[in-house]
Amino acid sequence: MRKKTNKTSKKNKALALQTPKGMHDILPQDQVFWNRIKRQVKEIAEYYSFLRIDTPILERAELFERSLGETTDVVEKQMFVFKSKGKDRLVLRPEGTASIARAYIQHGLSHIAQPLKLYYEGPMFRYEQPQAGRFRQFHQAGFEMISHDDDPIYDAQVILACYRAIEGLKIKKLTIQINTIGCKNCRPAYRQKLQNYYKSRERHLCRDCRRRLTTNPLRLLDCQNKDCQDLKKDAPIMLDNLCGFCNSHFKAVLEYIEELKLPYNLNNHLVRGLDYYNRTVFEIFAEGFYSALAGGGRYDYLIELLGGRHSSAVGGAIGLERLIEVIKASNIIFPMKTKNKVFLIHIGNLAKKKSLTLIEELRNNNIDILESLGKDSLKAQLRSADKFKCPLALIFGQKEAFEESIIIRDLHYGTQETVPLKKMADVIKRKLK
Ligand code: HAM
Hints:
The structure is a single chain. By secondary structure, the protein is α+β, with helices and mostly antiparallel strands. The chain has two domains: 255 residues, BirA Bifunctional Protein, domain 2 (2-Layer Sandwich), CATH 3.30.930.10; 91 residues, Rossmann fold (3-Layer(aba) Sandwich), CATH 3.40.50.800. It is 40% helix and 21% strand. It contains 16 helices and 16 strands. It has an eight-stranded mixed sheet with strand order 1-5-6-11-10-9-7-8. A five-stranded mixed sheet has the order 13-12-14-15-16, with helices on both faces. A hairpin with a 5-residue loop joins strand 15 and strand 16. The site of histidyl-adenosine monophosphate (HAM) has 24 residues, from strand 6, strand 10, strand 11 and helix 12.
């Protein structure tokens, strides 16, 4: 009986030391994907002249409450909020756009460029029920453009940046879902029409949608509940209720997308889950995958809402875990550029003692090495050199350490020569060529 209790408490202790629910370690074997994705995002961003920005992982809770909307799922249910010792209400950032808007106002960034193009990448946090493609800690890479005007070409540029970043990872069959949700002038009347339509069908709605009907009726259009999905088929759509300005803006965005020959679908039910959007909204999907790889849209009112001068803006963010899921499921391989490495073998205490200095000498000469300094037997070290397919082994024994020389062994041909340490780097470089 006692034994069992010990076992259980051991198990509980082990569990307590695991990652929090919905959060993951990124293990060495997955770093190849992360490195490749981050490189891809950086290349695309730099090509299209987006400047890197990094904002804190913690922000004041109020920033997101005001930006994303009090009645959005993210603010209502998904924020990790806590009080600091100084009694500030802080939050682990659930997304990047609000922070960018805050930084834009706080540092007066409008003088840097017009439009100002920014990009970022890093962890975000949402208290979600973890499932495939949905985590509590996840990573986004985002592109944002802030400007004095709302030129529709900016919408196309942001969509293009997101699309190219994903496409460059060899992910095939991407589709852009796109819609417009109008502006301050045309949306209120549409919202009213939508409410009227749903009011008479309220009893068929799910509990969440019944609540949203008064607070956020546009969200009824993207509810996944079967009954709500059936109802939306006949619901009025924003496209038929746009003002003239929004109509021509959206038309122009679509023309740019068509000119670029990017595959897109007009999705009248796409509304997005964050309140700061107006006009263009979009999401990018890969064939066969249910969750969006990226999402974004225009947010012309956010900067003013947060206390800045009126500025137009548009942006999008890519979910990096979802990219990795698609990459793995599609068996996409990123060949690793392998550099020839030499294997350092030490024999005896004096050689072992001098090995670290020897490695520094090689590092100063840009020669990559592998070693197993913890293994002392020659056989074990040769086996490791063989395993890593090193073309050369450097054999550093007692005699060599004493005479300041080293044996350079060609592991392919089995030949070897002893060279003075002073000449070691030159000889290795010649042989590696
Ligand atoms: P979002 O649609 O909430 O938009 O997130 C963008 C992307 O982040 C999603 O398409 C998805 O790939 C990924 N993502 C979101 N939530 C999770 C999660 N819980 N687990 C894993 N991946 C997730 C935004 O965040 C906006 N800030 C995008 C934007 C930028 N709009 C304008 N500028």
